[in-house]
Design brief:
single chain; elongated; alpha+beta; seven-stranded antiparallel sheet; two-stranded antiparallel sheet; 228 residues; 2 domains
Length: 228
């Protein structure tokens, strides 16, 4: 089917809605404007109906649809603005504490650098299995002080002297102690914040407030470690 309006151009109809108060013709291509009438034709050219545009109170073109209607088009509904809901301070603190814990675990796992007895530098990762292996090596050299098999990151396994195993163990202990102590103090910092914005501004690795910094330095020094 097709329609004509204003000119003899045929506008192919893809669907129709024929009612008493409204007629709709959805077209493949819509006319620029309506003429005095709109006529609907079958494919064989037989006129099915003709509507005088002036007989309708609200004729219009909506996209690719010709609408002949006695009902005014619906006014667009403007949604009421939704006020953003501020998260509870306790929720923000809980999220931040989880973030801090994960960052601490990652920092410990990443490991530490150390300088061996011959002056060469190396790096060891400190995953949980790595920490267990290093503890095993440390215990082994207490029994047999000649050496133990271990490896630096990216290097082949070697027999390291008892002195080098002790250097690795000491560096690992200091590294873990620092991050666990720092994490503990950051968590205390998060918990004493009074606004969500204060909590969100905290990131792992940030400088601690003066009182917490001083307290942490005292703990590290008493434990024989060193501040990063």
């Amino acid at each position: 089917m097709y329609i004509t309006t204003k000119t003899t151009k045929h506008y192919t109809v893809t669907s129709t809605t024929l009612g008493i108060v409204e007629v709709r013709y959805t077209l493949e291509e819509a006319p620029v404007e309506l003429g005095l009438s709109v006529s609907l034709y079958a494919d064989d050219g037989v006129c099915i109906r003709t509507d005088t545009v002036a007989h309708w109170t609200h004729p219009r073109i909506e996209g690719n649809t010709v609408v002949l209607s006695n009902a005014a088009p619906a006014e667009p509904v403007t949604p009421e603005p939704v006020e953003p809901v501020e998260p509870l301070l306790s929720d923000v603190q809980a999220w931040k504490l989880t973030e801090i814990n994960a960052a601490c675990d990652a920092a410990i796992t990443a490991g530490c650098d150390m300088k061996l007895s011959d002056g060469t530098s190396g790096h060891i990762s400190l995953t949980i299995p790595d920490q267990i292996n290093l503890s095993t090596a440390q215990e082994a050299i207490k029994t047999d002080g000649t050496g133990y098999a271990y490896h630096l990151d990216g290097a082949l396994c070697e027999i390291y002297t008892a002195a080098d195993i002790a250097i690795m163990a000491k560096a690992a202990t200091a590294h873990v102690l620092y991050h666990q102590t720092y994490c503990n103090h950051v968590r205390a910092w998060v918990k004493r914040c009074e606004t969500a914005a204060e909590v969100e501004a905290i990131a792992y690795g940030a400088a601690l407030p003066d009182d917490l910094k001083a307290h942490m330095e005292t703990i590290i020094a008493a434990a024989g470690g060193k501040n990063a």
